[in-house]
Structure formats: C-alpha cells, structure tokens
Design brief:
The protein is mainly α. The chain has 8 helices and 5 strands; from the N terminus they run ααβαβββααααβα. Bound molecules: zinc ion.
Length: 216
Amino acid sequence: MTETFILHAVLAPSLTFLGAIWIIGTLRFRRSSRQASLSTPALGYARRVSRPERGPEETARITGHEAAHAVVAHMLGLEVVSVSVERIGNSDGRVFYGLTHSTSESESLAVVTATMAGMIWDHLHGRHDTCSCDDVSHALRESLNLVSMSEKWMVPDVWDVAAMQARAILADQAGMVDAVAARLTDEWTLDADQFLAVVRECQETPPQHCDGGRGV
Ligand SMILES: [Zn+2]
C-alpha cells in the first residue's frame, strides 16, 4: 500500500516533471544551436579574426562572393546582421543572418538561396575553380531542414529553385553586389546599419551610379 502510494504520488509526477524539463530543454537547445551557427559569432571570434594581405583579384573574388550572399539574403527578407571579409579560422569571410525563432519554409528556402548565391556569383564571373565547401554543407543542412518541414520538397528541387532565385536576384542587383563589395574592400566588415546604408544608396540612385565606383 505504502509502495503503491509512493509510486503514484511521488515517483510518477516526478518522472513526468523531469520528462517535461528534458523535452523543453532539448527543443530550446536545438533552436538555440541553429541560431548560434548562423547568427552569433562563435566564442573566440574576436581573437581569431585577421586581415590578411590579398592581391586585387583575390580581394575582388572574396568581397564579391560575400556581398552576393548578403544582397540575396536581404532581397529575400532575411536580416543581415553583418558581412565580413576578415579571415576567421579557415574562412575568408562570412555573413551572419538574424533568423526568427519559428523557422518557416520560406525562411529556410531563403537561407538555402542566400547560401548558394556566393558560388553562383563566382560562377557568373568565370571563377569555376573556387571551392565553397562550407557553403555546400550549409546549403545541404538547410535543405534537409526544409525537407523535414514539408513533404512537397526533395533536396534536388530545393537546390533547383534556390539556384534559379539566386541567379535572378544577382542579375537584377549586380550593381548592389558591386557596391557592397567595394565597401567591403575598404571596411572589411559591415554591420547591419552600414550594409543597409549601401543598399539604400543603391535603391535611391539610378542603377548606373550604383556600381561601387568601379564602372558598370
Ligand atoms: Zn560563401
């Protein structure tokens, strides 16, 4: 009788309580880890950042690549928290996005599209031999995330749609990409306000003036 009482009155509620804590903790961890990988500089970020010597061709390739990520992300409604061409660990540049907590299909597709935009910009400029291995694995991870959200998607379809969207935006906004790349060449890192200032300047001036000073 006493043992039955202990099981029902003490043990069962305790296990239910611990189970609920574990589920909530797991969900929170999964959400925050996704956020962290995309939008928050990792621990030690400041210590590992450097501004290496680069020739003009390498500078143009890296600034254009990162600017393409940022412009496509912005045009698809993602918040660009920062865009940088400073070296961080093995990476020559990075864009941090501010993602919402409740990930939607459209946001996930936008992340895949913005991630592929760097490689597509390289390809459009004849840089076929560049390897963006981080981008490939990131795009694949986010594609799998999208596929898990909806049965209508398969990974190859996600990549087709994302590549088509990225090409269209880059064709329309080539001047804006050049302008962001030019600012990155001078500043190395743009925060959200600095990036938006370049975007607004491009949107408020005729396309022929939005070329980052390089000539159209
Ligand atoms: Zn990239």
